[in-house]
Amino acid sequence: LEANLLSDSIHNKNLTSSLMLISLNEKVVQSRYDQQQLENQNLLQSQQISYSQKLLNVVITAFMVLLVLLLIILYYMIRKRKDNTTLQQLNTKLSESEEKYKAVVEQSPEIMLIHQHGKLLFANQHFYTVLGYSPDELTTLSLFNLILPEEKEKIVQMARDRMDGKLPQGSYEIKAFNKDKKLLYFDMSFSRITYNNQPAILGIGNDITDRKENLETIKKLTAAIEQSPNMILITNMKGLIEYANPAFSLITGYTSEEVLGRNPRILSSGKVNIHIYRELWETILSGKIWRGELLNKKKNGELYWESLVISPILNEKNAISHFVTIMEDISKRKTFENALHEREEALHQANVTKDKFFSIIAHDLKNPFNAILGFSSLLTAEYENLSDTERRSYIENISMAANSTYSLLENLLEWSRTQTGKIKFAPTTFDLNGIINETMNLHQTQASKKGIKLISEVPFNTFVNADKNMVKTVLRNLFSNAVKFSASGEVRITAKRQEDFVEVCIIDTGVGIPAEGLDKLFKLDEQYLAEGTDYEKGTGLGLILSKEFIDKHGGRIWVKSNRNTGSRFYFTLPAQEQKN
């Protein structure tokens, strides 16, 4: 029993264990089932979630696609609108650009044209304005018909070569007629272009008619200046020569290269007063024209006279930029004028001489004869009734009048010979002392009567180269005057060497000459007449004759004197050449 009990116990324990095991298995199974159910539920939920997610993904994807499509559509709509705006802007800009270029072409001062197959396809307004044709008129004309006939063939061939691409681009001078048949000049440049898918020629150029006419005018003016017989100089503001025409070189001897950049003072002779040059510059710098005559010097040293007209040249600002000088060689005219002046002067002097001659004859020569005739008549009629003293006085008066008349006649004869050119100038070398002593002896009697001493202080061997007879006349007249106008005292003569001349001086202690009388000495048309201390009469002819003789020697004669202080008469004669 115990065994059974033990066995039952064990069996019960096993049963319990089995039950427990079964229960455990059931729990395990239930747990697995629950787990399976849970997994199934989870799987179902997962499947449900996956479907929803997929559906959501599909919806999202569809939405995104739709959104992208909308964005693409919106982009293309914006792009199209923008393209339309851009196109409109481009069209506007193109239209504006076209208007601008059209305005540029139409308003261009240059001629523009397109020529194709002998026809004018396009031309700007300036082209029509210059030629004077309307666009309709030129459609019926070929441009080649407007070209100068002698140049037509050359231009046609050039156009063909240009169309064929044989000639490079270049410019040509073309002569053509406008509607009024006036010849025009054009500077044209031609190039080959494509116009309406066809080769054509584009011509661009200028109307150079005015320029050509100006050039022709300049050529004429240049030729006139170059071929002018007058000298023409152009100088800048500093007075430097920038241009000299051929006549200048021909007359002055200076080539153009020698004078360019130099001052015209290279022509100065040094014989023109500086005040003339100052007046010249003051005149032209003030914008005025100066006219005058100048004595100038050529390259070879020869002097010549020229007449000048100097004008200022104004620039576009109306300011002086240059000076133009037109010079004419008037040397021959001056020689003729001088000769004419000399002849007029000679004629005037001849008339003065004639009047003086007749005056002397009528008055100065008549008076001594009146004295001679008067005193001789008294002597003849009253000889017996006159005392010896009276007779001597009358005879002395007759002698003095005769000597005065003789001296006057000598001067008249010599003077008349000088006026008619009959006295020959024959200088020789001689010692002055010889003719001085001779002259002093001639006047010794008259001087002694007045108590006048004649003194010579001339050194021995004072040689001069002069005409002896002329010097005698000069000394005779000067000594005669010194004695005539002195009451007493002395008359001295001195001489000294002064470079190439001998200066002679005759000094008296006489009445002298007032200041107003000094200017009248040595002149024919003015006279200073005074009585000698013994009432001697004078004509002034001796001093005039003396001056003419001294002038022939190239010397001078002058006087220094005051009233009541005596006089000093000077003259110079060429000295003998000194030899080593």
What can you tell me about this protein's structure?
This protein has 580 residues and is of the alpha+beta class. It folds into 4 domains: 1-104; 111-212, Beta-Lactamase (2-Layer Sandwich); 228-329, PAS domain (Beta-Lactamase, 2-Layer Sandwich), CATH 3.30.450.20; 424-574, 2-Layer Sandwich (Heat Shock Protein 90). It is built from 15 helices and 17 strands. It has helices at residues 2-107, 125-131, 135-139, 149-163, 209-227, 246-252, 256-259, 274-285, 331-364, 366-382, 388-419, 432-450, 468-484, 515-518, 541-552; strands at residues 111-116, 119-123, 170-177, 183-195, 198-207, 231-236, 241-244, 290-297, 303-314, 320-329, 428-431, 452-456, 463-466, 489-498, 501-508, 557-561, 567-574. The strands form 4 sheets. Strands 2-1-5-4-3 form a 5-stranded antiparallel beta sheet, with helices on both faces. Strands 7-6-10-9-8 form a 5-stranded antiparallel beta sheet, sandwiched between helices. A hairpin with a 2-residue loop joins strand 4 (183-195) and strand 5 (198-207). Helix 11 (388-419) runs parallel beside helix 15 and helix 13 (468-484) packs antiparallel against helix 15. The longest helix has 106 residues, at 2-107. The protein is elongated and about 245 Å long. The mean pLDDT is 81.
Report the β-strand fraction as a percent range. Answer: 15-25%
Question: Roughly how much helix do the residues carry, as a percent range?
Answer: 40-55%
Low-confidence stretches: none
**Mean pLDDT rating:** 81
Distance between termini?
A: 211 Å
CATH architecture of the largest domain: 2-Layer Sandwich
Report the CATH superfamily of the largest domain: Histidine kinase-like ATPase, C-terminal domain
Q: What is the fold named in CATH at topology level of the largest domain? A: Heat Shock Protein 90
Total number of β-strand segments?
17
- Output the strand order for the largest sheet: 2-1-5-4-3
CATH class of the largest domain: Alpha Beta
Number of helices: 15
Rg (CA only): 67 Å
Globular, elongated, flat, extended or rod-shaped: what is the shape? elongated
Q: Structural class from helices and strands? A: alpha+beta
Biggest pleated sheet? 5 strands, antiparallel
Number of domains: 4
